[in-house]
Amino acid sequence: MSRTESYLVVAASAAELAADPAVARRWSEPSALPGFTVGGLAEHLAGQVFSVAKAIAEPSSNEEQVSLLEHYARASWVRTGRDSEANVSIRDSGEGQAAEGPEAFVARLRASLADVVRTLPQVPVDHRVRPPAGPWSLGLDDFLLTRMMELAVHSDDLAASVDLPTPALPDSVNDPVLALLFSLAVGRHGSTAMLRALSRTERAPTSISAF
Q1: Is residue 33 in a domain?
Q2: Pairwise CA distance, residues 145 & 6, whole Å
Q3: What letter does residue 52 receive in the DSSP assignment?
Q4: Domain range for residue 14?
Q5: pTM
Q6: Alpha helix (H) ranges present in 30-101?
Q7: 54 φ, ψ (degrees, to nearest 5)
Q8: What are the start-end ranges of the E strands in 34-146?
Q9: In this structure, is residue 194 part of a structural domain?
Q10: 48 and 116 in contact (C-beta within 8 Å)?
């Protein structure tokens, strides 16, 4: 399965979750992710569709192209804490958009996803995207993987927030997402910590979170 096809699978799954009545019922309640209401988190999740729609509607970026790991090394939200300006801005953006309410949100998400389903397969593979964290560019496949990771992680957050099961995703989504998270975690904690976390409970570190 191509990266485009895998992205569309997880995007459709996230849109279905976000449209669940349980999300609308608890829209204004705190979510499982500190600093987000359920509505704000749903908006942040949907942002991984809206950002792709925007990226593929724009000309190919002429910014410096970097690797995935270099992208995360440069992104300010990765290097700073939850209460940093970058991360507070991300949460504020989701909360502000949540004012539209669940019905308008679902309609906007479905329309955007339909547009992406129609247009993404036609985008050239050498299309380069400037990610929100810029100023630099990612190849299309790498950019889609960053969105796939966000969709998978925040689908789990949203499902936990409204007491729904985390959506099951195919290996074509899970494998690259987990490989990316593993690489980021190794960069943060070191290979020994990862080795112990995966093989030796008695010496495992307290956290191997990628972020």
Answers
A1: yes
A2: 9
A3: H
A4: 3-167
A5: 0.93
A6: 38-57, 68-74, 76-79, 85-97
A7: -70, -45
A8: 128-129, 138-139
A9: no
A10: no
Is residue 102 situated within a structural domain? yes
CATH number for 62: 1.20.120.450
Question: Is residue 130 packed enough to be buried (19+ CB in 10 Å), middle (13-18) or exposed (0-12)?
Answer: middle
198 part of a folded domain: no
pLDDT tens for 135-162 read: 999 999 999 999 999 999 999 999 999 9
Instruction: Locate 158 and state its tokens.
Output: 């949203």
Q: What is the pLDDT of residues 37-94, one digit of tens each?
A: 999 999 999 999 999 999 999 999 999 999 999 999 998 777 666 665 656 677 777 6
End-to-end CA distance of the chain: give it in Å, rounded.
28
Helix (H, G, I), strand (E, B) or coil at 30: strand
Residue-wise pLDDT for 98-131, tens only, equals: 899 999 999 999 999 999 999 999 999 999 999 9
Residue 43 DSSP symbol = H
Cα 15 from chain centroid (whole Å): 13
Give dist(CA 50, CA 24) in Å, integer. Answer: 19
Tally of domains within the chain: 1
Q: What are 171's two structure tokens?
A: 């290996």
Spatial separation of the C-alpha atoms in residues 208 and 186, rounded to whole Å: 8
